[in-house]
Amino acid sequence: MDEVEVVVAHDERATVRVGEVFLKIDADQAATDREVEAMAAAPVPTPEVLWRRPPVLALAALPGSAIARLGVPSTASSEAWAAAGAAVRRLHDAPPPPWTGRDLDADAARLDEECGWLLAHDVLPADLVTRNREVASAALRPVEPVFMHGDLHVAHVFVEGGEVTGILDWTEAGRGDGLYDLACLTLGHPDHLGDVVAGYGKDVDLDVVRGWWSLRCLTSIRWLFEHGFDASAPGCEVDVLRAQR
């Protein structure tokens, strides 16, 4: 009998694996609706939907393995990272879905709130927060929205050899800034940013990518802490902030 592996679990959703089946349990069925619709429309490999019985969505396991893990050096080849960049470009070139993804005004407000919380609770040194808040400002600019994944964490991109075999977790997909996807994909793995941009095949404003690195880290530390994750682990969010210049 296959064991039940808890992939991730918090108060918003949980994912467990049983053999070759992933079961996603989400309290927000509208989010699951968007995920299923986004996967059907995305011009990149996605998991097969096996069945859906709210609040559970059953997905087939993807071949290959995650391109990397946060805090651990990637063993994937430069070709695999470039293939990931090319897959993201195909997504961004596709017709975007009708619903909005990330909202810049909301991002700016959350940045203010989270920086205030970090300083009030003495979580990070004030100069580190101030410096990264300045870096983050580069991401908060008008942009032509594209079909964005919205949470393109390295653990969500599966590769085998030099090819992308699938992209997971489309809950946050929508219309938004494509450079946010590139930033999520390379967060904690800046040494592969060049490979991703080469595969993307389009001029990329690297200051904006770095801005999204800072913004994502600054605004996620409290959530990670409250949900039992360690943002100060080697190579994770706090180290990313420290590396920013």
From TrEMBL:
Gene3D superfamilies, per the entry: 3.90.1200.10
PANTHER family, per the entry: AMINOGLYCOSIDE PHOSPHOTRANSFERASE DOMAIN-CONTAINING PROTEIN-RELATED (PTHR21310:SF40), AMINOGLYCOSIDE PHOSPHOTRANSFERASE-RELATED-RELATED (PTHR21310)
Residues of the Aminoglycoside phosphotransferase domain: 20-198
InterPro entries per record: AGP_Transferase, Aminoglycoside_PTrfase, Kinase-like_dom_sf
Protein name per Swiss-Prot or TrEMBL: Phosphotransferase family protein
